[in-house]
Amino acid sequence: MREKNGKNLSDPFDSKGALLYDARLMQKVKMPVTIDPVKAAQKRSDYEGIMPLVNLTRLTESLLDKQGEVTVRVECGTDQQGLTVIQGGASCEVSVTCERCGEAMTVSLDCNFAYTPVKPDDDAALELIPERYDVIEKDEHGEINLRQLVEDELILALPLFPMHDEAVCAVSASSMSFGDIGPEPEKPNPFAVLAELKKK
Description:
Elements: E1 2-4, E2 7-9, E3 25-30, E4 34-35, H1 37-43, E5 45-52, H2 57-60, E6 69-78, E7 84-97, E8 104-118, H3 123-127, E9 134-137, E10 144-145, H4 146-157, H5 192-199
Parallel strand pairs: 3-5, 8-9
Antiparallel strand pairs: 1-2, 4-10, 5-6, 6-7, 7-8
């Protein structure tokens, strides 16, 4: 925590007394597909921009409409442990099917993330990474796929069984009750594997 103008500020990066946004490069542009996290961290670069939903093909498989944009912000830096950190958030509104009435509904997706990049199969590095960070693998060029990172986070933010509030849903919960037919078989979660990978 640091204080400036009487306010406490939380800064995970080792900025040597500088504020998180001091001497940073703020770019309000279309987000890049990939970035070099080490170079971006050395420059303490920030990115703020958009990703078209239509480019997130795995996410849009679950949506009714592929139109729209995701607002993304990413901050790159180095923490007190010397680890390269990519942190930020993404938000958007998407159209999905209500599981109760079958009609379209709008869902707001909002996620925050903090990653540190690693080389593939670098088990020694993995043991030193704090639990507060997820890991993301660098490719052969030392870059990470920023689009894939954001898409993974938004997929995890999707509700498994989206439903309107009962007050505005075309079908009420009570009208769907036709006696006790036993528990419904649990549906497999297509993103369960992704969630498990994030825990590792």
